[in-house]
Amino acid sequence: MLALLLGLLSAPAMAALDASEMLADPALEARARALARELRCVVCQNQSIDDSAADLAKDLRRSLRARLLAGDSDEEAIAYLTHRYGDYVLLDPPLKPATWALWFAPAGFAALALLLAVRYFRRRE
Amino acid sequence: MRRLLFLLPVAIFAALAAWLYAGLGGDPARIPSPLVGRPAPAFAAEGLATADLEGPALVNIFASWCVPCRAEHPLLTRLAADGVAIYGIAYKDRPEAAHAFLAELGNPYRKVGLDEDGRAGLEWGVTGVPETFVLDGESTVVFKHTGPLTPDAVRRDLLPALGR
Questions:
Q1: How far is A6 from chain B (nearest CA, A)?
Q2: C-beta atoms of A63 and B122 within 8 A
Q3: B161 and B84 in contact (C-beta within 8 Å)?
Q4: Which tens digit of pLDDT belongs to each residue from A70-91?
Q5: DSSP secondary structure letter of residue B5
Q6: Is the CB of A43 less than 8 angstroms away from the CB of B122?
Q7: Domain architecture of chain B: domains with CATH
Q8: Among all residues of chain B, which has the CA nearest to that of A113?
Q9: ipTM over 0.85
């Protein structure tokens, strides 16, 4: 009864996900869904594979669930996909030298602006 | 000199704007392949698996339902006639349809793998068809071309990557 109720409540949010794709184990299915939300559907640029109805997104969801069923940890399942599709599948870009500018530039610019502002107002006093 | 310092933010802004503007020109469908520099991935399609690949060679992912594949087909035929080994993977295609496609246009492939459910394509990180990978003599992936081949791309990218 509770499962039915939950199913009814969450149904509108699952437009892309076919019920037949879902795993029987609810804990595993929850992990699969959480991971799918972090993975980019590579053919639709800015949708996660959880949101996308694209064929490729469906394939990626299927292989993600197959990895989890095979006993992969979250990290291993993600690595399986980045190994094939690159960091591009991650909606959250990883922190590494090539992405330092991406992660630190905003804070860097803010700090620079603050520094210039402080100097400017000091001089006016 | 100090008085010109007020130009610094403007200069930084201009440099940043130019850099970002240049980035707008890129094609978002062109995703760098993480496979480049690594051995050919382990895959098994019906009729073709990793062990069958003998480099230097091309691995061409195609499908009978894909119009650009039809467009690039004459180029593959010419490459095959020139002695380039080409392996084909029929991605998400019904076997009959793939066979009919090759019967109609000719078969430039040394071997064709049928990948009806797209699992082999996934191992190659395929996002769409056609895609063409270049393998060197050790069957290491050295180049990936996304989209239909053009005479230009063959001359500029594929042949040098094949060592020709």
A1: 32
A2: yes
A3: no
A4: 999 999 999 999 999 988 899 9
A5: G
A6: no
A7: 35-162 (3.40.30.10)
A8: B9
A9: no
